[in-house]
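so my prof wants the structure for this chain in the tokens format not the other one, which i didnt know existed until like an hour ago. anyway here's the sequence
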Amino acid sequence: MPGPAKVWGMRTIPSRNVIVTCAVTGAIHTPTMSPHLPVTPEEIAEDAIAASEAGAAVIHLHVRDPESGEPVTDLDLFEEIAAKIDRETDVIVQPTTGGAPTMAPEERVQVVPRLDPEMCSCNMGSINFGLYPMAENYDEWEYDWETEYLEGTDTLIFQNSFADLEVMLETMDDHDVVPSLECYDVGHLYNLGHCIDQGWIDPPLHLEFVLGINGGIDADPKNLAHLKTVADGLFGDEYSFSTIGAGRSQFELTTQSISMGGHARVGLEDNLYLRRGKLAESNADQVEKIVDLAWEVSGREPASADEVREFLALKGSDATAFN
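here's what i got, hopefully its the right format
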């Protein structure tokens, strides 16, 4: 049962229930790495629906070329998949605004006016984004694009300048979209503080601590504790937080986040495995595991989508363009 609520800005936050977000496919892993990575619109939607039934209240959405599995930014695919998910479940669809490195911020954020979602991701600073070591783990590839895609990240800078952030955050505000503010390093929290000072966003805030990306802060429990300490100093009690642990640190860091009063993101975007040596056969497998762990470590239950809408003050699925 939900615990007592506390007043937080203009929102009411149930203090016990855990927001479980599921990132179903992402743009990091490639088809060779797992036969269970969803690629087609039907596969992505089906995995998202199953993850929702397993306890996820939020689905973080990327799209891929249905033939090759290559990450793309096709707005038609975003809309098709979001509509499929919405027809079958009440889950909150949270599209990415990460886009491609060559895209201007005005292009990356076009998913917001096109889908008019309740939430979307927003990356809070520039980092190196080095996926290239992953290419050393495989001798044969299902598709030719995979090695070039991964190896090309040795020169990749994922740009999120202050000018980019102004465009992103003001576009989200114009459409009443609540951003999940992805912070890959401590400096990104200070970037967010600057954005508040500039009037591009106002508290309360929902943060996503991202640990373990090659180029960002390392996946170390001490680093998660430090991120929260810095956020406490900057934002007081006017924020909530969730945690992403990339790769093998996924469940260690998400359970730590839950034990600290925060929330958790799982899914095949972040980690392909259910446990060491065992590939997750679906996103729902990971959702079920974090739901069980949340209860074991803290006695907390997964929040429903409607509870999340209430305590993040979302506009509701009826207000989206894909409803």
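also thought this was worth mentioning. Residues 1-14 have pLDDT under 50 and may be disordered.
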